[in-house]
Write a structure and sequence with these properties.
Blueprint (H helix, E strand, L loop, with lengths): L1 E6 L2 E7 L15 E7 L3 H9 L3 E9 L2 H12 L3 E8 L6 E5 L9 E3 L13 H6 L2 E5 L1 H4 L1 H13 L3 E5 L21 E2 L3 H8 L4 H10 L4 E5 L5 E5 L2 E5 L12 H14 L4 H16 L11 H10 L5
Helix pairs in contact: 1-8, 6-7, 8-9, 9-10
């Protein structure tokens, strides 16, 4: 699988466990603090590389030490960072995530260089030469820009996928409508489906995306697993029964597993199971890069672990 992941790149600083922020200048001891590459492009790239894909990642980061570290973390994971654009005078996007004991992750986020990425930065030849283009966060760069990139990919026979970034409460259909005719696989969460579609039911919302041109919609639903919606019908994919440590990067891991399954020619329902397995493996530790696993280990996990009822 030869894939370009394009879009959001973030350096995450994760702290666990955090039940409350100390008052004033107080201090609290924690068990772990980690720095990881994350975001709808970078986080997906990490897990795709683990699952055996050849990954190049494209986006904008700052010409700062944070960007240096983010690039290093991706390169150590086997991701080619040569398509990243470095912005002088602009900070690399970063988040501080105080992880609660139950795995919830409130966020303190800096948008940084991500919002500066535009058509002049797109590596058009690399996109045309890829087998797959995964665009994370099209609403951040604008639907018209995203549509032009995806249309270019489709013109060259590239399989396309899109993951959304904004929470559902900030989403509107016009933010993604122009993109959908060029999307083979749309990978939102259930909150985003409702927010971006304007519907009150996830299946109805997903079908609205299909009607607008998307090929398939694989919806992540947190502890309830995933929901695969295609022109042929709807199929639930239960989550694996695990002890969750941190949900950071689980959506990106699902996307990576699902897309890797698609690249191997697996039925979409089986690709969604691989996505759920990758997400479960990541959720058992801290950060988007948790877990020393490959495709064989993820398949074994899927075959041997129980799923929630």
């Amino acid at each position: 699988m030869n894939v370009v992941t394009m879009g959001v790149h973030v350096l995450d600083v994760l702290v666990r466990p955090v039940e409350e922020i100390p008052r004033g200048q107080g201090a609290t001891l924690v068990e772990d603090i980690r720095l990881t590459a994350a975001g709808t492009a970078a986080g997906t790239a990490l897990t795709l590389a683990k699952l055996g894909a050849s990954v190049r990642t494209a986006g904008a980061i700052g010409a700062d030490p944070t960007g240096d570290l983010l690039s290093l973390l991706l390169e150590r994971a086997g991701v080619d960072t040569g398509l990243l654009v470095r912005r002088a005078g602009t900070s690399t996007s970063a988040s501080v995530l105080p992880i609660r004991p139950n795995g919830d992750r409130p966020s303190l986020h800096l948008l940084g260089a991500n919002i500066t990425y535009g058509l002049d930065d797109v590596p058009w030849d690399a996109v045309a030469g890829a087998g797959h283009l995964h665009l994370g966060g099209p609403e951040l760069i604008g639907a018209d820009v995203a549509a032009r990139v995806l249309a270019h990919a489709k013109e060259h026979g590239v399989v396309t996928s899109v993951d959304l970034l904004a929470p559902g409460e900030l989403g509107t259909f016009d933010q993604i409508e122009a993109v959908l005719p060029y999307v083979d696989h749309l990978l939102p969460n259930d909150d985003q489906v409702l927010g971006f579609s304007g519907e009150t039911d996830v299946v109805t919302g997903a079908r609205k995306f299909l009607d607008a041109g998307a090929g398939a919609v694989a919806v992540t639903c947190g502890a309830d697993g995933a929901l695969l919606v295609t022109a042929r019908g709807t199929r639930p994919v239960p989550a694996f029964d695990i002890d969750v440590v941190d949900t950071t990067g689980c959506g990106d891991a699902f996307s990576a597993g699902y897309l890797r399954g698609v690249s191997l020619g697996r039925p979409l329902s089986e690709a969604a199971v691989l996505g759920s397995a990758a997400a479960a493996l990541v959720a058992q530790g801290l950060g988007s890069d948790h877990g020393d696993f490959d495709l064989a280990a993820a398949d074994e996990f899927a075959a041997t672990h129980e799923r929630r009822a």
